[in-house]
Specification:
Oligomer: heterodimer
Strand order of the largest sheet of chain A: 6-7-8-3-9-10-11
Structural class of chain B: alpha+beta
Shape of chain B: elongated
Shape of chain A: globular
Bound molecules: adenosine-5'-triphosphate, magnesium ion
Radius of gyration of chain A: 20 Å
Helix content of chain B: 40-55%
Strand content of chain B: 15-25%
Number of helices of chain A: 8
Amino acid sequence: MTDTTLNVDHVTKRYGSSSTEVTAVKDVSLSVKPGEIVLIMGPSGSGKTTLLSMLGALLKPTEGEIHLNGTIISALSEKHLPDIRLKQFGFIFQDFNLLSALTALENVSIVAELAGMKGVAARKKSAELLADLGLAGRLNFLPEKLSGGEKQRVAIARALINNPTLILADEPTANLDSKIGHEIMRLLRQIAKEQNRSVVIVSHDQRIKDIADHVLWLEDGQFKEIVSMAIDPVCGMSVEREKAFHLSLNGMDYYFCAKGCRDEFAADAEKYQQTNEASF
Amino acid sequence: MILLAFHNLFQNKTRLVISVGGVALALLLILSLDAIFAGVEHQITAYIDNSGADIFVAQKDVRNMHMAASAIPASIIDQVKAIEGVEIVTPILYVSNMVVTGDKRNLAYIIGLTENSPIGGVWNLASGRGQPGKSETIIDRSIAEMSDVELGDTVEILGQRFTVVGFSNETANIVNSIAFISLDDFQALRGSPDVVSFLLIKTHSGLSADAVAALLESKIDGVTALSRTAFSSQERRVVKDMSTDVITIMNLIGFLIGLAVMALMVYTAILSRRKEFGVLKALGARNGQLYQVVLAQAFMSVVLGFGLGVVFVLLLSGIIPRLGLPLSLEIRPISLLKVGGTSLIIAALSAILPIRQISGFDPAMVFRGT
Ligand SMILES: Nc1ncnc2c1ncn2[C@@H]1O[C@H](COP(=O)(O)OP(=O)(O)OP(=O)(O)O)[C@@H](O)[C@H]1O
Ligand SMILES: [Mg+2]
C-alpha cells in the first residue's frame, strides 16, 4: 500500500434523496502513485468535479472509502479535515480563486500561516516559491493586476506551499489561452516529477492529455476505459499505449503514432532520447 | 488573518465609508447629545455659580430655582443679618417668564435686583450698564442679537415695557436666558412689596458656608438655606432628572442605528466574499479562523467609526459657539468611555450574527464555479 498515494475504493456519491436523487459518481475505483499525474476527462455533468471534491476531502462519499497515505480520509470527522486539507492537498481551480484583497505574496503566505508557519518565515518561503515560478517581479501585485497565467502560477505556488502529497486541479486551463494553459501544465508536470508529488487533474482540455501519465474517461459517473498515454518521441504527439506502435530499447518502452515515426526513432534513437528528456 | 481582515476592509472603499461613516454618525448622536446636556447642566447653574453668594436662602423645602417658586417675607432680612458669620444679605425676586422682543418671545428667568447690590447681579457685562434702574432691564447679548434689539430699545417683561440699558454675557442657554430688572419694579408688578424670592448671602471669609447655612436654618423658621455648591448641584439634578429619559431614548436610538449599520456591513462583507471564505475553507482554514477575520473587521470599522465620531463632535463643539448659538458642547471623559463601550458592544453583537453564516459555508462550492 505504501506505493500508492491515493486509493479510491468503490466510491459512490449520490446527491439528494428519493425522487430527486442523482448518482453523480458510481462505484469508482482508482489509485495514484507518488509522482504520478492522472487526468480525468469526460462530458459535462459526468461527475468529475464531484469525484475531485471527494478526493480533496471537501465532500464525503455516500459509499466506499478514500485512502490517502494509508489514512481513510473519507471517514474522518469534520474536525480533522482542515488539517488534512491544509497539509496533504494542494488545490488549483479553474477561476484561480485568489483572495482579491491580498497581494500575490500574501495569497501564498496566508496558507502557510494557516498551517502554523510564522509570518516572516511564511513570507520568505512564499517569495522563494513564487520566484521559482517566475513571479519574482510580481510579489506585491494584487490579483487584478496579474494576467491569467500569472494568477494560475500564484495558485500553483499556493497549492505547493505546504508541501502537499496530492495536488488536485479542476479545469486549471479553462480560463487560459491554449499556449499559456499548456505552459502552466508543463510547469505542473515538472514540479510533480521533480518533487515526486501526485497530481489529479480534471479537464475538458484535450491538449493537456500529453502531460498526463494516465488519462481516465468518466461518463455517467463511471470510468469507461482507462487509457494510458505516452508521447511519441519523434513527433511529440500524445498516443494511447494500447493502440500505438511500440518499441523496446535498452529496457525502455517507446510508443509512436505511426510506423514512420518508429522507424525514424530506430534510426537515431540517441537524438530523440535527449529531446524527449529535455521536453519534460 | 488579521491582515486579511485589514485588506478586506480597505479594499472596498465605498463600503468602508458607509460603514465607518454610519457608525460614526450613530455614535455622534449619542456623543453630541451627552455633550449638549453636559453643557446645559453647566449653563443652567450659571446664575447660581456666578452670583457671588455663598448661601441661598429660600422658602422652606425649595432647593433650586428652575421650575420652582419661592416666597419669603422681606422682614426676615434683619434676622438673617444678625446670624453669626453673615456679612452681606441681598434679596432677589425671581420668576420664570418671557422677554418679548417684537414678535419674539424668549423664555427667561426674570431677576429683580436691589439697587447697587454687590451680589446676585450681572457678572459679565457685554455693553451698557449692569445695574437696572426704574423701567430698565439688562438682557442677554445673544438673545438681543437674535431679536435685533439694541441698547435703548424696549422689550416687554411681565406685561410691562422696559428699556434695555445693558447686555450681559453667559446668561443664555438653549432653554432660556436671564433678564435683570429692579427689585422695585418687580415688587410693583407682583403687588406684594413685603415678599422676596431668595436671599443671597455672603459669609465672612474663612467660614464654612455649610455651617452657616445650617445655623441659619436652625435659627430661622420657614426657610431652607443651602451653600452655593449644594444649591447648584440640586439645580443640576433637576435638569438631569428631566433629561435622563430623553438621553436614554437617544442613546438607544444611536445604539440601534450603529448596530444596524454594522450588522448590515458585516453581513454584506461576508456575503460578498462568500466565495473567498469557501476557498479559504477548502484550503484548510477553520471556522474559528474565518470568524476571527470577520470579528477583526467589525472591530476595526467600529474603532474607526468611534474615532471619526469623536472628531465630528469635537468639530461641532468648536463650530457651534462660533455660530452665536446659545449652546455649548461639553465632552466629558465619562461619555467618551460610555460611547467607546457602546461601540465595542456594537462590534461584538454585529459579529455574532455571522457565526452560523460562516460555519454553513460548504467548501465544496469552490469547485462549482462562480
Ligand atoms: N450539490 C449538488 N447537489 C445535487 N446534484 C449535484 C450537486 N453537485 C453536482 N450535482 C449533480 O451531479 C452530477 C455531476 O456533477 P459534476 O459537477 O460532478 O459534473 P462535472 O463532470 O464536473 O461537470 P462539468 O464538466 O460541467 O463541470 C450532475 O448531474 C450534477 O447536476
Ligand atoms: Mg466540473
